[in-house]
Amino acid sequence: MKADIDAALIALFEWDPAAEERLTGFGPEAFHRVLELYHERPADYPERLIELMSAMGREALDHWSHAIAIVAYANPGLYVDQLSEPLRTLDAVILGTIEDERVVEILGRALDHDDWLVRYHTVRSLGKRPEHQARQHLQRALRDVEEMVTDEARVALEGPGELP
User: Fold this and answer.
1) Which DSSP category does 14 fall into?
2) What confidence score (pLDDT) does residue 164 get?
3) Which residue among 25, 54, 82 closes a domain?
4) pLDDT confidence of residue 118
């Protein structure tokens, strides 16, 4: 199955429009494999993926972000289970689309992050959430020291707050 998951991931990097569905079709195994390849670079790392990443340069990071978001959305509980705090920017972004009861609490804690960019994306993700508690966290974000964070909190509070 690893080879099939790797092939779907490579197809995603090659802009194959059917790759997302193929990748998520492998369920939790795809989630674990994508994170393994991203974080650990195991001995069985696909040669074609190395070639693509070399050719893409920094753009490869966008593809990895996309791949991680896809498997996280398809496996929300697994994604939330593997999070560690403090959150990274990508985690703050992805959590806006994850349906898991723990997300709003995690995002609320991320409003205290040292990095304003993480707080900014946290506010954007909270703005997508329908839970009442998300609105309370957005109210707190209005007092952030970074103007971009407070501006985004204002915009989010004006919106309906719903998952995509």
Assistant:
1) T
2) 59
3) 82
4) 98
Residue in the block written with tokens 């696909």: 46
Domain boundary among 49, 82, 115: 82
Structure tokens at 94: 């992805």
State if pTM tops 0.85: yes
Task: Find the helix or strand (DSSP H, E) in which 48 lies.
Answer: helix 47-56
Residue 88: CB atoms within 10 Å:
16
- Do 140 and 65 belong together in one domain? no
Q: What is the 3-state secondary structure (H, E, C) of 40-103?
A: HCCCCCCHHHHHHHHHHCCHHHHHHHHHHHHHHHHCHHHHHHHCCCCCCHHHHHHHHHCCCCCH
Indicate the DSSP class of residue 8: H
Rounded to whole angstroms, how far apart are CA atoms 34 and 40? 10
Q: Find out whether 105 and 132 touch, Cβ atoms under 8 Å.
A: no
pLDDT digits (tens, 9 = 90+) for 26-69: 999 999 999 999 999 889 999 999 999 999 999 999 999 999 99
Closest CA to 156 of 116, 118, 129: 129
Give the C-alpha separation, 30 to 75, whole Å: 9
The total domain count for the chain is 2
- Residue 151's H or E segment, with its range, is helix 147-158
CA torsion sign, 159 to 160 to 162 to 164? Answer: negative
